[in-house]
Specification:
78% helix, 275 residues, mainly alpha, MetI-like fold
């Protein structure tokens, strides 16, 4: 009796699959970052060949070298620490006040209607226009710098939170009340989760605002901070160092936004706004 061996099925190599995935990722990256990459490439080529004034717009490799030298030598460490401290204190205080107050005001319509005009008035008033007032009240030290950032970051968080509460589906609230749910349960199970996407919109706007006001605050009466380094480099005509500090601030902004987006996606998996 003879036994016939059966050859195992042939397996196709995974290389075509991997190459197709790599191609898809490359196309997606090109679609998303192609314009930015083209702009940076043009900047480098134009500055190197003298198409634009390299004194005002140095080549990117010169700027990156200045940034790397400043980071590795520790020249920016104190400035980064003080800038993050100022922005972090102001942003954290805005969160601690803005979110609870917004959740409270969004549920009490008479209070929201009474306070909305003054909120809109202060929201339309530039925080930089009020900065001299804060300096008169708090002095030219850390308190006025932190407070002007806090003032500017408070309103996006507060108004976004109020809007998120007001946009909660009232039918869900009425249904919960019909089934005898307590007010605290309705707030914890319906109002708060439904408001989270809008709150994150305010958090992201405020994070950007915090960095913008940080730069402005550190350009007036400061001797430390990344905003001070931008102004100091401009005064001394150290243009690569100036752009290096600007790029570093932009990177901090991108990192903060990416962190908030990741946190929003984790907390709001059920919401299309978290995509």
């Amino acid at each position: 009796m003879t036994f016939q061996t059966i050859d195992p099925p042939l397996r196709l190599p995974a290389l075509p699959v991997l190459s197709s995935r790599a191609g898809a990722l490359a196309r997606a990256g090109l679609k998303r970052f192609g314009l930015l990459g083209g702009f940076l490439l043009f900047w480098q080529v134009a500055a190197t060949n003298g198409w634009i004034n390299p004194t005002i717009f140095p080549p990117l490799d010169t700027i990156i070298a200045a940034l790397w030298n400043s980071l590795t030598s520790g020249a920016y460490m104190d400035d980064i620490a003080i800038s993050l401290q100022r922005a972090g204190l102001a942003y954290g205080a805005a969160i601690l006040l803005g979110i609870p107050l917004g959740l409270f005001m969004g549920q009490i319509k008479p209070l929201e209607q009474a306070l909305d005009p003054i909120l809109q008035f202060f929201r339309q008033t530039s925080a930089l226009a009020l900065y001299p007032v804060f300096i008169l009240l708090l002095g030219l030290g850390e308190a006025s710098k932190v407070f002007v950032i806090f003032w500017a970051t408070l309103f996006p968080i507060l108004l976004a939170t109020i809007g998120g509460v007001k946009e909660v589906d009232r039918k869900l609230v009425e249904m919960a009340q019909t089934f005898g749910a307590a007010r605290l349960t309705i707030f914890r199970r319906i109002i708060l989760p439904a408001s989270v996407p809008a709150i994150f919109v305010g958090l992201r706007l405020s994070a950007t605002t915090a960095l913008l006001l940080l730069i402005a605050a550190e350009m007036i009466g400061a001797n430390k901070g990344l905003g001070f380094q931008v102004m100091n480099a401009q005064y001394n005509f150290q243009i690569p160092q100036m752009f290096a500090a600007i790029i570093l601030l932009a990177l901090f902004g991108l990192a903060a936004n990416a962190l908030l987006v990741a946190l929003q996606r984790r907390l709001c998996r059920w919401s299309e706004l978290a995509r």
